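Worked example

This section walks through a single chain of length 557. The input is the sequence exactly as stored; nothing has been trimmed or padded.
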Amino acid sequence: MTNFSQASEIKPCDFCEDPVLNFCRDCKNGLCKICTANHFLLKPSIVHDIVPFRYGTGSTRFSPQCACLSSEIPVHYCFDCLFPFCTACKHIHESHLSGCISENFHVLVQLLQEQNLELMNNIIPWSEASIDIINVKRTELSSRYEKLQVEINTQRDLLHKCLDDHFDGKLETLREMETQHLEKLSNEVEKYRKQKEFMIGILKRNKGILGSFRMLQRGKPHQIFKSLKVDLYPKFEELKMPSFVTDVTVENIRKKLSDFAGSLVQGSLLSSYLTPPPRKTFLSEKPMSVPKQITVFPIEFYGGDVACERGGTVWICGLGSRHIIQYDVKGGKTGNIISVTSQPSFLSLNSKGHLFYTEFRDESVKCVTHKIPETFAKNKGWQPRGIHCCLNDDVLVSEYSEELKHSRIVRYNSAGACLTILEYGTSQQKPLFENVRFLCENKNGDIGLTETDKVTVVVIRKNGRKRFQYSGHIRFSNFDDFEFAGISSDSRCNYVISDPKNRTLHVIDWQGKFLFYVMPGKLVSPMAVCVDDEDRAWVSEARGSIQVLTYMDNDTV
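Given that input, the structure is written out below as tokens.
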């Protein structure tokens, strides 16, 4: 650094030749006015402590000294820089509003008085009012939490009462069954007692007959056997004991209780679970006579997954690409590009517009807010694959384990906490899924997923019980076998499934009934499929293009 005389020269900035005004205590650099504004961008990872130059050089005592560190007492003041300067530095502040300190002393006094008035009339009262408001909230905080505790205790007492009534009813039913059982057994005992007395009488009569030699001598033994009763043995009525089913787990009990018990969310007094719309059935569902292709446009990479949002825009990720690009329905780029550190595999959007994607290699689920990806969830040993955001902003993720050789479905809430894991059946030994790729949830709350190894589409309820399984529709087609990839659900709760092998889309209803094919043989290896809010199907093709088409009449209800 060049040394300058304190008496004759002005200390220059460490980055340019302008006079120094400030000093960074972290970087140990003198800064001019322009370099001070740009210094924060030089090393954004460092917290820069920038102070006036005379303070940063070591002196913490205020002294009316010029920025050139001259021993001359400053006699001028710059109202733009808010800094005193000596006569030697007067040429630096020629274009600024400045003046002699002695001549403009009344102006400085006025500035200080205005600053004092601003502090007394505005800033200090505002701070006091803020303190009062915070104190009021502090005093009300305990009463509000006490109210919440009362509500929780009330809910607990109600649940205990419901459980007591439920099991008391079962015990009362069991006592009635016991009484009926004892009554039937008593009737059986009485019936066999009378039968025994009757058989004793027959035994005495038979002994009398055997002792009668006259009848045997008369040659009429058939009359003796005719008078015998051999069908006197009643059939015993076996009564079985009642059974009480106890194959329930703690997780199932908690799940059932959470359906009608309240939940606490930090920072909100509302429930964290939004009730989905009521179940609907659609009696008239008809395809368009000819599915209409709205547009087809190329993309920069081989199509990966597709995530639709309102307004006719879509986010697309590609195989081997580290960018997530937004397109509109006309096939043009909107200019929104999200760059990530690794390669995203599957995408989904929630109701708040937050973009979620899975990273296969990193074994994590990321959430993008304000174009900044952050880790949403991560489970060691489980590779996240398909992802779907539900109506209540829960996040469904299909995860695969290389060690266990099977998949599972994990449900997270909007904060990233794990709610449920669907992995094993009731036997806790056989896994429910083998290799799940894509998945979705319809308005009924049912989860549809595609099994790669089994070449089937499985639809399960929210509790993991299977609703139906779809393996393709051979009737009215020339297809012998199928290959299922992407799956999505529309506003009618139908499922739209891509079939790369047969170059078509399958449409089935929420009960598993096949409806129709969409453009069979005219799509080029369709992979991911996503249905937007206007029931338009966005299909990514393996050739590196996106097709947007409609397949249902608008008047279908």
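What to look for: Residues 131-240 form one domain.
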